[in-house]
Amino acid sequence: MEISMKKVESSEYYKALLKQVKSPEVSNHIGLVLGSETQLLMVIYGIGSIESMENSRSQLSIAILMKKEFDWIDNNIQVFDPVLSATETSVRQSLGCTVLSVNEEARRKVVMPTLFYMPFCIYDLYDNLLQANLRMNSLSKMAIFGSSLSLSSFRHHLIQTTRLILAAGIITSEFAIHDTDDDYNAAFHNFSLHFFTTCN
Q1: How far, in Å, are 42, 191, 195 from residue 25 at the CA level?
Q2: Beta-strand (E) ranges in the chain?
Q3: Which pLDDT value is given to residue 7?
Q4: Protein fold of 2-198
Q5: Which H helix or E strand runs over 125?
Q6: Domain boundary assignment for the chain
Q7: What is the DSSP letter of 100?
Q8: pLDDT average per 10 residues of sequence, the chain (200 residues)
Q9: Burial 41-61 (b: 16+ CB within 10 A, else e)
Q10: Quick one: which of 121, 14, 111 has its CA closest to 64?
Q11: What positions does the domain SRR1-like occupy (predicted)?
């Protein structure tokens, strides 16, 4: 993981991500998610095996690097994936992650500011997360870093949730992380940061 983190840290993709997150628009949205709190919790679903997949190592590296870069990310990153071996669990714990033992199926109800990091999760997990937090007092406390929800494939699969969100007077602010590094296109293709705010 150390080699992967160093490689990612020097990549054009990571530099583009930092620039986007530090931009006034995104910083403002992060402030709205935080509210009166000083830190938000990062919850990771679906990274996969860091033993066998380079993309998974790159995706976990981004999370660890972001935690080091931004003091508004809580040091305790929570992570779940059903394929984790004992070795992978140990490695993630050594990096400051808490490995969840229960499969939440992304149905976690937000009670504190939370950033959900969901690299290439199946449609159902995004749907579960949005359905579980449909009320504005939950959605306003969360952000999602993962596959773009504006893609036609996502719009098709999430149409029920999208209708409910629109009916509740909620809009999504999406900030695409531009793919500037071919080396990481497979690991972070069409990734965006998503925030939820009221129309009023």
Answers
A1: 20, 17, 11
A2: 41-45, 77-80, 97-99, 114-118, 142-147, 170-176, 191-198
A3: 94
A4: Rossmann fold (3.40.50)
A5: helix 123-132
A6: 2-198
A7: P
A8: 92 92 95 96 92 90 96 95 86 92 93 94 84 82 87 56 59 78 78 77
A9: bbbbbbbbebeeeebbbbbbb
A10: 14
A11: 41-195
